[in-house]
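Researcher: We're teaching a course module on how sequence relates to structure. For the next exercise, students receive a sequence and then see the predicted structure as C-alpha cells, so they can try to spot secondary structure elements on their own. Here is the exercise chain.
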Amino acid sequence: MKRLLLAFFLIIFSIPFMVKADKMKPRVKELLPVLPYSYSQVLISSPGFKSPAADILFINLCYLTGNDVFNNWKERKFSEEEWERLIENVRVIEKLDPYYFDPLYFLGAYVPWKVYKNRKLLLKINSTLLEGSRYIKDWRLPFLVGFNYFYFMDNKVEGAKYLKIASQMKGAPSYLKLLVPRLYAESGKLDIAIAVTYEELKSAKQESVKRALERRLKALLAIKELDRALSVYRKRYGRCPETLDDLVRSGILKKLPKDPYGGKFYIEKRKCKVWTTSNLRPVSTSSSR
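Model: And here is the predicted structure for the students to work with:
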C-alpha cells in the first residue's frame, strides 16, 4: 500500500515537469518529405549493418506516417506518388532484411485502408507481401493479400486462393477454413467451394472445426441441388421460375432443402442462381423473427 501511495505522489509531482518538457520539445513546422530509400547507398554508408539500417529506415517510415498525428491531431494526407514511394521504401527495407516481418505487416494491415480506391497501389502492396512470404512463413501475409483482393478489389476468387494458402499454415485461425468456400460460393464457383470444403473436412482434426465444415458442406450441397433443379426448369419452360416453390409444383423436386444455418434459400433473378439469406453464417433466433 505504501509503495502504491508513493508511486501515486511521484506521478502527481512529476506532471508539471512533463508539461514543461513537452513545451520545450521542438515542433515540426513543415511536413517532412517522403524521400526514396536507396539500397545501394545504404550498403555504401552502412556496410555490414543491413539489419540495423533496416530498423532505422522503418522507424523513419513510421515517423512519416504518424508524425502529423502527434503534432496537430490531424492525419497526414499523402499523394499517390508519396504512397507509391512508401511502398517502394518497404521493398528496400525487406531487401536489407528479408526476414523483417513488421514492415510487411505495416504495409498489409495499414496502408490498404488509405489507398483502397487505387487498384495499382493495392497490387503493388500484394506483390510486396508475396515477395516477403518467400522468406517469412507467417499465415498473416497471404491472409492480407487475400483480404485485399476480396475486400478492396472485389475479387473473391483471388481472395479465396490466398486465404486458402493462409488457412493451411501454422497458427492460422480455424475460421479461414470456412471463409474460403464461402468466397468461392459467393463468386459463383460452387463446385470449387464444395471441393475445398471436402478437402478441409478430410484434414480437420478439431471436432468443432469438423462440425462447422459439415454444416457448410450441407448448405453448399443444398444450393447445388437447387441450382441443378433451376437448370432443369429453365430447359423445360425457357425461363427462370418466380420462386423456388415452382420447382416443387412442377415436380422437379419433391421438397425444398433447408438451410442448416437457419436462413432461407431464394433465387437471385439477375443470374437465376440460388443463394441464402444466411450468407452461409448462423442466423440467430432473434434476427430471424
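Model: If you want an answer key for the exercise: The beta strands are 265-268, 273-276. The radius of gyration is 27 Å.
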